[in-house]
Amino acid sequence: MPGMSHARAVALMVLVTLLWSGAGVVSRHLEAARGFEVTFWRSAFNALALLVALPLLRGADLWRSLREGGRALWLSGLCWSVMFTAFMFALTLTSVANVLVTMAIGPLITALFARVFLQHQLPARTWGAIAVAGAGIAWMFGAELQTGAAAGMGVALAVPLAAAVNFTVLQHVSHGSADPDEALGGEAAATPDMLPAVLIGALLSALVTLPLAWPLQASSHDLMLLAGLGVFQLALPCLLVVGLTAVLPAPEIALLGLLEVLFGVLWAWVGAGEVPGPATLSGGLLVLGALVGNELLALAGRHRAGPAR
C-alpha cells in the first residue's frame, strides 16, 4: 500500500468503515447469543479467518513475525483485543447509536496522541474538522445519554482509547522505529510486520471471553451471523486499515473512521428499527460535514502543490 495514492487510500478507508458499521444491526438479529458469548464467537471466527488468510499472505514469515515482532506488535495486539471485546459487549448493554457516538471521540484522542508522542504538526483544516466533529459528537452524546445507558457507554469508551494507542503505534512503526526505546538512541531495528497483531488481538479476545461466555447458547442462525461478522466486519477491514497506516496519517484515519458512526446508526435504523433522535441526526450531519470539508481542503491543497501522483 505505500505506493497507493491518497485518493484511493481515502476510498478504501471509507469501505473499511462500511464493513465495520454492520456489527450493530447484525447483533440485533441474534436469537440466543448474549453478552460475552457474542464477543467470543465474533473474535473466534475472526481468529479462524486470520489463521487462514495470514499464512497465505505471509507464508513462513508469519510465524517469524510473531516470534520477533517485539513490543510494538504485542502492544498493537493488546489494543485490538480491547477494541474487539469492548465494542461488542457494549452493544449488548445499550443502543447502537450510544455506542457509536461514544466511539466517535476517537479522532480527538488520536490527534492528541499523535501530537504528543509522534510530534505531528496537524494542519489547521484537520484541527478545524476535529472541532466541528467534536461539536456534533457532544450534541449527540448529551441527547442520547439516558438512564441505564451509562454502563454501556463506559464500556464503549475503551474502544477509542485503545484505537488511539493502536493507530499511534502503527504510525510509529510505519514511519520510524519499531521499539519505543529506539527513539532515545541506538541502532534502529527492522520494521516489524504488524498484520499479525490483528490475529493476536482476536485470539486474546476469544480466550478472555470464553470463560465468561460459558455455557454457550448460540443457535445455528446466530453462528452464521457471527461468522459473517468475524470474517467481513473484523478480519478483512482490520487487515486493510493496518496497511492504510502507511499511507494516511493516524488523525486522518481516525477522522474518516467517524463514518462508521453515521453508517452504523443508519443500518440500525433501517435494519433493526432503532430510530435515532433529532440530535443524533443533526450531530451526524456536523460530523459528515467535517469529514467532507477536511477531504475537500486536502484535495485542493494537493492540486495547488502540483499534479497528483
TrEMBL record:
<feature type="transmembrane region" description="Helical">
    <location>
        <begin position="72"/>
        <end position="93"/>
    </location>
</feature>
<feature type="transmembrane region" description="Helical">
    <location>
        <begin position="226"/>
        <end position="246"/>
    </location>
</feature>
<feature type="transmembrane region" description="Helical">
    <location>
        <begin position="149"/>
        <end position="173"/>
    </location>
</feature>
<keyword id="KW-0812">Transmembrane</keyword>
<feature type="transmembrane region" description="Helical">
    <location>
        <begin position="194"/>
        <end position="214"/>
    </location>
</feature>
<keyword id="KW-1133">Transmembrane helix</keyword>
<feature type="transmembrane region" description="Helical">
    <location>
        <begin position="125"/>
        <end position="143"/>
    </location>
</feature>
<feature type="domain" description="EamA">
    <location>
        <begin position="9"/>
        <end position="141"/>
    </location>
</feature>
<protein>
    <recommendedName>
        <fullName>EamA domain-containing protein</fullName>
    </recommendedName>
</protein>
<dbReference type="InterPro" id="IPR000620">
    <property type="entry name" value="EamA_dom"/>
</dbReference>
<keyword id="KW-0472">Membrane</keyword>
<feature type="transmembrane region" description="Helical">
    <location>
        <begin position="253"/>
        <end position="272"/>
    </location>
</feature>
<dbReference type="InterPro" id="IPR037185">
    <property type="entry name" value="EmrE-like"/>
</dbReference>
<feature type="transmembrane region" description="Helical">
    <location>
        <begin position="99"/>
        <end position="118"/>
    </location>
</feature>
<feature type="transmembrane region" description="Helical">
    <location>
        <begin position="40"/>
        <end position="60"/>
    </location>
</feature>
<dbReference type="GO" id="GO:0016020">
    <property type="term" value="C:membrane"/>
</dbReference>
<feature type="transmembrane region" description="Helical">
    <location>
        <begin position="278"/>
        <end position="300"/>
    </location>
</feature>
<dbReference type="Pfam" id="PF00892">
    <property type="entry name" value="EamA"/>
</dbReference>
